[in-house]
Amino acid sequence: MSAVPLVYCSVLALTVVACVTASSDSRVVETVPDRASFEPVSDLLDHRCGTLDCHGVSYRNLRIYGREGLRFAPDARPSSRTEAPFGTTVAEYDATYQSLVSLEPEAMSAVVSEGGASPERLTFVRKARGVEEHKGLGIWKEGDPEDICVTSWLRGRTDVALCKQALER
Amino acid sequence: MWRRKASGLSATPRGAAVASTALVVSFTLVLASTARAKEPEDTSKKSASLETAVYADSDHVTVFTPAINGNVENVVDGASLHGSYLVDVVSAASVDIISTASRRWHEVRHAGALSGEYKPHDLGIGFSASVSSEPDYFSYGASGHLSYDLDEKNTSLFFGYGYGHDTIGRAGTSFATFARSLQRGSFLGGIDQVIGPSTLGTLSLGVIIENGDQSKPYRYIPMFSAAEAAKTPAGASVDYVNAHRLFERPLEQLPLARRRFALSSQIAHRLEFSTVRASERLYIDNWGLKASTTDARWFVDASERVRLWPHVRFHAQSPVSFWQRAYVSDGQPGFSLPEFRTGDRELGPMWAVTGGGGAKVFLGSSAHPHFFAVSLEADAVYTSYLDDLYISSRTGVLGSLTLELEEP
After folding, report:
1. Nearest by CB to B261, which of A14, A24, A35?
2. What is the pTM of this model?
3. Are B95 and B88 in contact (CB under 8 A)?
4. Is ipTM strictly over 0.90?
5. Are B264 and B283 in contact (CB under 8 A)?
6. How far is Cα A47 from Cα A51, in angstroms, rounded to an integer?
7. Burial letters B38-47, b for 16+ CB under 10 A, else e
8. How far, in whole angstroms, is CA B325 from its chain's centroid?
9. B228 contacts B254 by C-beta, under 8 angstroms
10. Which of A132, A134, A135 to mutate: most B Cβ within 10 Å?
11. Three-class DSSP category at B337
């Protein structure tokens, strides 16, 4: 029995596959939540998640910068004071924002594009709510002021008052 | 998928090994009682084996695998059944884990398989089914195949189809909270051909069609500016990457469909006191990965009871089309990111060489020397990663000890 038909099929298959490859140049532009209204949210994350033994570590996938933990400037130190130069800087807010919104670009784009619907599609929301394995355990429950602070920001209407209330809890 | 994190050790290999030994001992007693009792003629041939394998490498990954196998040949004329069960106990603190400030994790995987074939004459039909379970990954599959002998069994054609379904989750999280699905359809067709009085050849083509998101849910990809990416060296350390990367570190994202093709050939030739077996596999897929795997073993009958074999293997592959050592983010606004991005070294350019060997000793009685056998096999593998972060090579060792029982 000749194996020639099998070889022909193999060559054809290999030729077809060789022409169909995932593009190496394609890029995705993420739909991101608002940066301007992020700072109250960042202050909350810095306070609840940004300690130096949690997300205030530069090795983490999610890095949280702020006055209470990881500082951006080499000569800056953690501080309980909020006024300049001790408080969280604009560069630190930017760094935390970039780290947070780009963790899951596809999921974040979907949530923001849909007006903040189903935020539990984002891993950081699930982990904070305690419904997913998290070394820091559950930080707050769905519907808590902290949770509403974060999800209101994802909806594009940050509840600043609630974020400040959550910060003081 | 034992490359991911888990919260803690949930089973002991010793327990699995004890259970396996008990099963084999029980099977031995059944064989012995069967031999003594007066029963109608039983033409079936039964065998069982207990294997323990250990893998360890320089990237701080260790795997312990006890396994049991059972076979019944010629249950009725031309029918056979095979079953197996194994446990993978994984402990890992690889550079991918420590680069994110995570600690060593442990995970246990259970896998079972059952297969059978019925071939009373020239036409045969067979099936197989398998299931695999670990804390964050569940997989099951089934397949069927046909075979047909021609030319007085000098030629055998075979063709089969299989379906597999994987559920990919995250450790410590229920599948209801987070899960992705991956479906897999596979085709395999080929020919076994007697080439000469002592030579058998096989040629086959395998096609695998995968649909679903098989991106690792734990793997985050460091991003760099264009200037930094150009300067990032191969094998850049964890400290270097964290000092030079941007703040954004997105999850791995792979294409949602994969089409794989593999052309395999094997030849076995019997010499006077030995058998040489060599194989070559050419692989290509629509992600752009191309690979070649060459394997050879030389089984030498050192005596009637001792068989030895050296083993060599060489594998080389090109990267997938979207592979980058250092991916570039265009930053704000909008974070223009690579649509496809990965840190899986198995998708990058690499080569690996394996060398080792094994020995098998038959310890049965003079009347039935093959009733009991012990095999020991050991291999060392050196892998070179040609364009990766964190690591440029890895050395691993794999050893196994197998006890086999075969009914006289």
Report:
1. A14
2. 0.86
3. no
4. no
5. no
6. 7
7. eeeeeeeebb
8. 26
9. no
10. A132
11. strand
